[in-house]
Amino acid sequence: MSGNALYTDLSGYYDLMCADIDYAAQSHCVHRLQQLFGNGGKRHLDLACGTGPHVRHFLDAGYASSGLDINQPMLDRAAQRCPEARFARQDMCGFQVDEPLDLITCFLYSIHYSASIERLKACIASVHRALVPGGVFCFNAVDKQRIDNASFVSHSAQHGEGHFRFSSGWYYRGDGEQQALRLRIERTLGEQSEIWHDEHPMVAVSFAELQTLLAPYFEVQVLEHDYQRLAQWDASSGNALFACSKR
């Protein structure tokens, strides 16, 4: 499979792919960032929301939470998980909202799905338009200059009678504005195994370049990629949290 077809065909297994993610910790951390750097408001939108696990946590924390994604099967599952939320099939690089928001999130490095610098610029501009003054944009990102092409993360999960093993890793060739997220999924059922390989085109950007893109719109805080504690980025790690307050 190629492109995002894998996510469409295996949307029912997406939560298994993300089974090792602590959605509650991530959501609570961003709630704290909103209290520290934002206006404390409760109108929230999650970009690239997938099946809606973050939206669920924000709803439970008292937010008027909504989500958007370009993948309809994901949105269908999100609506089942969060029937009280509003979901829309929109491109995060050119979306519109009915009323200004207090908080916009983009978890799981999904900001890189912008796929090019021009589209990333459009995403940032769309977020800025959608936020009230003092509203906050929170997301995580990876620095292209610190990617280890040989590094992969893996985990396994059981689903029904099948055993799944998921692996993912970043790849950057060393120049240009494109990097890739490489995925491998293996499903074993009895004595038979199926393997899917997928490669998603992602925008490659350094943190210095990203801060330059954000600066005209936001006051930017770059934090360590640690959802348990809040600390300024040490300027050496390859991933970070960004908390951006609208000017």
TrEMBL record:
Name one molecular function that GO assigns to this entry: 2-methoxy-6-polyprenyl-1,4-benzoquinol methyltransferase activity
Specify the Methyltransferase domain's residue ranges: 45-135
- InterPro entries on file: Methyltransf_25, SAM-dependent_MTases_sf
**Entry annotated with the keyword Transferase:** yes
Give the highest taxon in the source lineage: Bacteria
What does the UniProt keyword field contain? Answer: Methyltransferase, Transferase
One Pfam family matching this protein? Methyltransf_25
Q: Know the name of this protein?
A: Methyltransferase domain-containing protein
**Is Transferase included in the keywords of this UniProt record?**
yes
Its GO biological process terms? methylation
